[in-house]
Amino acid sequence: MSVLVILEQTRGAYHRMSWEALAAAFALGQPVSAAVIGEPGEAATKGIERLYTIPAFDYSADGYTAVLAALIAQVQPDYVLFPHTYQVRDFAPKLATRLGRVLVSDVVKLHPDGTAVRQHFQGKLNSDYTFTGPGPRLLSIQAGAYRPDAVPAGAPVIEAFAADPGPVRAQAEAPFRESSRAVDLTAADIIVSVGRGIQEKDNLILVEELAEALGAELAASRPICDNGWLPMERQVGSSGQTVAPKLYLAVGISGAIQHLVGMKGAKSIVAINKDPNAPIFEVADYGVVGDLFEVVPALTEAINKLKA
Amino acid sequence: MKIAVALKQVPARDSAPGAAEADLQFEINEPDAYALEAALQLREAQGGEVLVLSAGPARVATAIREALAKGADRGVHIVVDRPDQLDALGVAQLLREAVASESPDLVLTGLQSDDLGSGQTGVILAELLGHAHATLIMAIEPQGATVRVKRELEDGWFQHVTLPLPAVLTIQSGINKLRYATLMGIKKAKTKEIREIPGAPAPAQVHAGPGYAPSRSKQAQIFDGDPEKAAQALAEKLKYEVRVL
């Protein structure tokens, strides 16, 4: 049995989730090798058997699928693990299909027998996935599911691999960022963040008053910014900013993983939500289960009194 | 331009997790609703036809009818009684059969489903059809035989990509403003065609076990009951333990 981990580099630098996927691979208790499209870099210091290096070329789903399908055909691993990045979401299902296999995506835990735990209903339930068909078994690992420091150090055999990316149909232009960010949430000590539970734009005044009482920056989960109720630059999560303030107070945010990855590094997390099963309570230190329209004004008042 | 929209019917966002099917309310998966809206806007700008496809049991016809009421022209219902026994490849294979016979220029679907969240259907479907694809799409500009799209990358980065048609795009939530069905739309939808085709699923390679509550890695201190008292208790924690007041 053997495990192959496909590491990811963006503009020549390793994506940190590469090491998390590598850590997940060690949970299988099998010999682990890895592959990278790019220079070996830090991967050459990891305690893996073999590192396959493929000369860097610009990302395309067509090119990555062709090259990695050729690599997998040569290496014949029993498992292939990916970090569940946006790029992996773009090509790994295609690669699995090319191989006649099914990718189990966004896995939060991997057992030594290959059973993979996935979240359903945006984290409200877990489900154990098992493979019933032939290998290789393909899985992508959720951001933050494994600690990157769980990977032992070592010196792998480095082996160059080359394959033809073949015709690429997508013509990609240079990546860009929208206008520079006027709000740097990463500098804030206290953040009050608001989600779908606020229901209407006019209700934002409640969280604005709470933020003012705490001297906090106001942030939001994606749906609030999508609706245009707060500017995109105030979004926390995988498509927004990643923050680690002293206090993160989440109001009416259920805690989908896309949001959690942007804030679970906060020193203290407080959640106010009417649903006691909301995944946000899993990362919270303090929680109030209740109607935010009652709790938030009461909290603002209590804070103002305690400050006085 | 002929556009096919693949949509999934999922349990409503506030349903109790793990409830029996008979106790659930269903709705159109939200990212798929944005895909439908994008298709309707393209048709309004360019002319053409919007076709809606969905796989599932009899209840799925409600979701297709809702899409027709919003303005889609025709529906295709791929009838499968137990969609929960399909894996991601199985779902895409059912859609492939139905899409291939229609030869649309563009196939749109949401980037992922709110219930299972695999985020794979569109990409697998593209590979099965032999079409180019792009994911996490924020904007679509048709340009004759090609389409130029804006993709979302991580950490606030974006990228424009041009694909030859036919192509499959997976749509990011929130890229447009969803319309409501009008009374006229609902009336018209009653006369629009929904073609039923039997689905013949291939055996699954991956099996999903029953849902269970996740164990908490961190035990939150919870205040509930009277909101005034809960707020007071929390404010004291913020002052004396978190020390931010």
Please explain how this structure is put together.
The complex is a heterodimer of chains A (308) and B (245). With 308 residues, chain A is α/β, with parallel strands linked by helices. Chain A folds into 2 domains: 3-160, 3-Layer(aba) Sandwich (Rossmann fold); 185-307, 3-Layer(aba) Sandwich (Rossmann fold). Helices cover 25% and strands 26% of the residues of chain A. In chain A, the strands form 3 sheets. Chain A has a 9-stranded mixed beta sheet with strand order 9-8-7-10-6-1-4-5-11. In chain A, strands 15-14-16-17-18 form a 5-stranded parallel beta sheet. In chain A, helix 2 (61-75) crosses helix 3 (86-98) and helix 4 (204-214) runs parallel beside helix 8. The longest helix of chain A has 16 residues, at 292-307. The termini of chain A are far apart. In chain B, the strands form 2 sheets. Chain B has a 9-stranded mixed beta sheet with strand order 9-8-7-10-6-1-4-5-11, sandwiched between helices. In chain B, strands 2-3 form a two-stranded antiparallel sheet. Chain B is of the alpha/beta class and 245 residues long. In chain B, helix 2 packs across helix 5 (183-189) and helix 3 (88-100) packs across helix 4 (121-129). The mean pLDDT of chain B is 94. Chain B starts with a strand and ends in a 5-residue tail after the last helix. Chain B is globular. At the A-B interface, helix 2, helix 3, strand 7, strand 8 and strand 9 of A face helix 3, helix 4, strand 7, strand 9 and strand 12 of B. Strand 12 of chain A pairs antiparallel with strand 9 of chain B.
